[in-house]
Amino acid sequence: MRILAIDYGMARTGVALSDPTGLIATPYRVVPSRNYEKLLIAIGEIISTIAPDKVILGFPGRTDGTKSEMCERVERFKDELKQRFNVDAELVDEKYTTVIASQMLHAGGTKAKEQRQNIDAAAAAVLLQGYLDGHRNEK
Questions:
Q1: How far apart are the C-alpha atoms of 52 and 132, rounded to whole Å?
Q2: How confident is the model at residue 58, as a pLDDT?
Q3: Which domain holds residue 15?
Q4: 17 contacts 1 by C-beta, under 8 angstroms
Q5: What is the pTM of this model?
């Protein structure tokens, strides 16, 4: 099962992809997202190229359980993807994925200044790997 993960952001959106067996998540790319329509086109091209079985989107809920404005944007984005590209899309809690991704990049020798280019795709990969690990027994 091939899964595409999206870490939606206002400036950049990170994308990660699982291997065909659904075991390993890998950062795929970062898409500029200041222009919403261009973002949708770019994600649509990725979806048509990869043909994932499922798309997961990071849901940025607050630690107290309430929804932020960004939560509403992600929900709209998910609905738009489902409608435009007929994909199975699901929201997944993304708390601390960027922090974890930053720590992993730093441990790998990537300096904080250099992380900006890769952090969003790395965060999407952290999100996806957590999802894959949590659903491993469902296969």
A1: 14
A2: 92
A3: 3-138
A4: no
A5: 0.85
Q: Of 76, 56, 32, 31, which Cα lies nearest the Cα of 133? A: 56
Which DSSP string do the residues of 104-119 spell out, in sequence order?
A: HHHHTT--HHHHTTTH
For the sheet containing 25-32, what is the strand order? Answer: 25-32, 12-18, 3-7, 54-59, 89-93
Paired tokens of 86: 């007929």
Q: Total domain count for the chain?
A: 1
Least confident segment among 7-16, 39-48, 92-101: 92-101
Q: Where are the alpha helices (DSSP H) in the chain?
A: 36-50, 69-85, 97-107, 112-115, 119-134
- 10-31 tens-digit pLDDT: 999 999 999 999 999 999 999 9
- pLDDT, one tens digit per residue, over 41-50 is 999 999 999 9
Q: What is the CATH number of the domain that holds 124?
A: 3.30.420.140
